[in-house]
Backbone:
């Protein structure tokens, strides 16, 4: 009998949760490597593993497959990401039913980015235009615990952080139980965002998303405007200096994440969500350096 646990309840019970995000590998053969990584992450006893949902194509089915494996074979709690991209209500209903079949209890409800080659997100006929509509649909469809995305520096399409926060509130009012943030490198952005959210009576837990920079190419990618996260000059200067020394970049990225999390620990965060980039070692190193109340 598989134990059923909603993230909403885990957040209620625990002083600090720990979660690790993984993504479905593009190549079929790399699935076994990912499973080994997830098992290694099990050593740090994460409260849940989150599995991203591809922008399109074959990796989408993989989200259900991986989520099922994590839950039913590895016995770990799982959060399956789901987007509105190119899906009708019926498509979404079928995915929700498939997730339910696999004992998945938790969904991260997202709008998703515009499909590759397009600039603007377009609602398809019979589909959803914004994540709050997806939250509402999931809530009416079945009893899942629902998370949503939050953007400490504002979502790139939003005219201002305030407007974006009003839209975040729509997602919470529609039934979201918790928020996981986009990566950020300056904790003050997170604290400001949290204060403003509270002023809007957004009272669900806001879990900071932590992204340890592990290599130069990855750093260049997240520095692009698509991520909407400012790179601090301290981080940028250092990474540029270490450009030709991959080992040192990883070391510094880990150190930066530890410092960031140390500061957050002293400021009453409900948990940490780590963007693992499908690697376990850096996560274990980071957590080994932190006095986590678990
Ligand atoms: C923790 C996390 C995990 C993610 N995982 C994935 C993943 O697995 N797969 C993937 O493809 N992408 C993922 N993303 C990226 C995400 O899909 C994009 O950032 C996307 O552009 C926005 O999704 P959203 O759910 O935040 O959208 P929304 O909340 O719908 O917001 C999108 C934009 O519309 C505005 N808006 C929202 N609601 C309304 C409304 N009702 N009326 C008018 N304007 C509105 C917002 O201010 C914002 O500018 C993730 C992001 C985060 C932070």
Residues:
């Amino acid at each position: 009998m598989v134990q059923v646990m909603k993230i909403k309840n885990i957040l209620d019970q625990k002083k600090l949760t720990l979660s690790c995000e993984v993504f479905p590998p593009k190549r079929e053969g790399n699935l076994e490597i990912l499973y080994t990584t997830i098992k290694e992450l099990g050593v740090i006893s994460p409260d849940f593993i989150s599995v991203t949902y591809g922008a399109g194509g074959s990796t989408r089915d993989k989200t259900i497959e991986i989520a099922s494996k994590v839950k039913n074979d590895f016995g770990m709690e799982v959060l399956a990401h789901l987007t509105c991209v190119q899906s009708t209500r019926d498509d979404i209903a079928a995915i929700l039913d498939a997730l339910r079949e696999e004992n998945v209890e938790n969904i991260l409800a997202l709008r998703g980015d515009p499909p590759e080659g397009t600039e603007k997100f377009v609602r398809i006929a019979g589909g959803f235009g914004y994540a709050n509509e997806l939250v509402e649909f999931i809530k009416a469809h079945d009893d899942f615990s629902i998370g949503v995305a939050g953007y400490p520096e504002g979502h790139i399409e939003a005219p201002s952080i305030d407007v974006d926060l009003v839209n975040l509130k729509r997602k919470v009012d529609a039934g979201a139980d918790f928020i996981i943030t986009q990566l950020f490198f300056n904790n003050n952005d997170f604290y400001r965002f949290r204060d403003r959210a509270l002023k809007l009576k957004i009272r669900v837990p806001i879990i900071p998303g932590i992204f340890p920079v592990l290599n130069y190419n990855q750093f260049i990618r997240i520095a692009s405007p698509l991520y909407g996260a400012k790179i601090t000059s301290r981080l940028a200067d250092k990474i540029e200096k270490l450009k030709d020394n991959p080992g040192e970049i990883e070391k510094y990225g880990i150190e930066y994440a530890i410092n960031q999390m140390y500061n957050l620990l002293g400021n009453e965060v409900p948990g940490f969500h780590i963007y693992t980039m499908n690697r376990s070692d850096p996560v274990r190193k980071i957590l080994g350096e932190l006095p986590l109340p678990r």
The mean pLDDT is 94. Residues 52-53, 55, 81, 83, 108, 110-113, 130-132, 149, 155, 157-158, 163-164, 167, 170-171, 180, 182, 209 surround flavin-adenine dinucleotide (CB under 6 Å). The chain has eleven helices and eight strands. The two ends are 26 Å apart (CA to CA).
